[in-house]
Design brief:
The protein is an alpha+beta fold and 379 residues long. The protein has 11 helices and 14 strands. The chain folds into 2 domains: 8-208, 3-Layer(aba) Sandwich (Chemotaxis protein chec), CATH 3.40.1550; 308-378, Surface presentation of antigens (SPOA) (Roll). The chain has helices at residues 8-16, 33-58, 74-80, 106-117, 126-149, 199-208, 218-255, 257-271, 286-298, 319-323, 372-378; strands at residues 62-64, 68-72, 84-89, 92-94, 96-98, 100-105, 156-157, 161-166, 177-186, 189-198, 308-311, 341-345, 348-358, 361-369. Helix 2 (33-58) packs across helix 5, helix 4 (106-117) packs across helix 5 (126-149) and helix 7 (218-255) runs antiparallel to helix 8.
């Protein structure tokens, strides 16, 4: 950065919150052996169906190796994957509620789409991404069936949404999450698929598949006995303080206030071990600190181009219906005539507007800017 410019890696790091000068924070939890075994049982039970599904769609024989399972945080995982990825967000939303994401390289996504559509080097456009969404949706459906059998009654998922985007723009869980890494081979080419779920959901699944919490050791029992002894000592000190209080009261009757002060001082000296100095905690102003940091970072990337699109509406169709489309086909969208259109930046809603005609070109007049809370909820 000696010439004042900023590299693409540094831009991605700023967007992702990655410290370029050092490693990110280590995960706060570690997987126990019985948890790894339980999660491995869950994955291996569903892996044959994923393999069969992909082979039937692509017409190729695929190789799947045993997955690696680890706890990671966002910064560490971003270092593990390439700059551009294809991500499918398909969160759990009933019984189990939380993040559920699949990540694959662009090369693997392009390979799958090319085999499904019988074309060379297929572009990763909206139709291609819908093929990936359908593939992931079918696999998650098999996972949901397995979870139902394991005791998670009524578990469901949100509709799959697939994007082809820089890794820094993908929404990951904020805290620790569990990553399943699937090595995949198609012919001679080797790829990886990463399945991500929040730590809490992974632990619930591990329990359902046989993982048990460890029994507290003897050290905990010793700690409890020490605490009981401390309480008993405190009570004894309080009892010792009572005679001093009584003496102080007698002294007040005979000698006045000085005797009372002396008696109270004796009681305070005996009981002081029972009291703690409690003070209110003063937290720093998080909002001001956050804004200051954001302004400093954003100033470095103000000239970076971002994709802005206007969405007239959406609909969901199976692959059979899409392949059957031709000239003259009418596609019904989920928007009513006259409704505001959505304005998106990098596939994330930021505003609403109305369509206008400028000379002979279409345009959009912004009618509403989404509030920060609405934009965060959409992300």
């Amino acid at each position: 950065m000696s010439d004042g410019s900023i590299s693409q890696d540094e831009i991605d790091a700023l967007l992702a919150g990655v410290d370029m000068g050092g490693m990110g924070a280590a995960p706060s939890a570690q997987l126990k052996d019985n948890q790894v075994e339980a999660l491995t049982s869950y994955i291996k039970a569903n892996l044959p169906a994923l393999k069969s599904n992909l082979e039937s769609m692509t017409g190729e024989t695929l190789g799947f190796e045993s997955p690696a399972i680890e706890i990671m945080q966002r910064d560490d995982f971003l270092r593990k994957i390439p700059e551009m990825v294809v991500a499918t967000v398909i969160d759990f939303n009933e019984t189990l509620v939380g993040d559920h994401i699949f990540i694959m390289t662009q090369e693997l996504a392009q390979k799958i789409v090319s085999l499904v559509n019988h074309e060379e080097n297929a572009d990763l456009d909206e139709m291609s991404l819908s093929v990936i969404s359908e593939t992931i949706s079918q696999h998650v459906g098999i996972e949901l069936t397995a979870l139902e059998k394991a005791g998670f009654s009524g578990v469901t998922n949100n509709p799959a949404e697939t994007v082809n985007a820089p890794k820094a723009m993908i929404r990951f869980p904020q805290q620790d999450f569990v990553v399943f890494t699937f090595p995949v081979t198609i012919g001679e080419a080797a790829f990886s698929i990463w399945e991500i779920m929040s730590y809490q959901i992974a632990m619930e699944i591990a329990k359902a598949y046989g993982a048990v919490d460890e029994v507290p050791n003897a050290g905990m029992g010793q700690m409890d006995m020490t605490g009981m002894q401390g309480m008993q000592q405190g009570m004894g000190g309080m009892q010792q303080g009572m005679p001093g209080m009584q003496q102080g009261m007698g002294g007040m009757q005979q000698q006045g206030m000085p005797g009372m002060q002396q008696g109270m001082g004796g009681m305070q000296g005996q009981v002081m071990g029972m009291n703690q100095n409690v003070q209110s905690v003063q937290f720093p102003n998080l909002q001001m600190n956050t804004l200051s940091g954001e302004q400093g970072n954003i100033g470095l990337i103000m000239d970076v181009f971002m994709e802005m699109t206007v969405e007239l509406g959406r609909t969901r169709k199976v692959i059979k219906e899409i392949l059957g489309m031709g000239e003259g086909t009418i596609i019904e969208l989920d928007k009513l005539a006259g409704e505001p259109v959505d304005i998106l930046v990098n596939h994330k809603p930021i505003a609403k507007g109305e369509v206008v005609v400028i000379d002979e070109n279409f345009g959009v007049r912004v009618t509403e800017i989404l509030s920060p809370i609405e934009r965060v909820s959409e992300m």
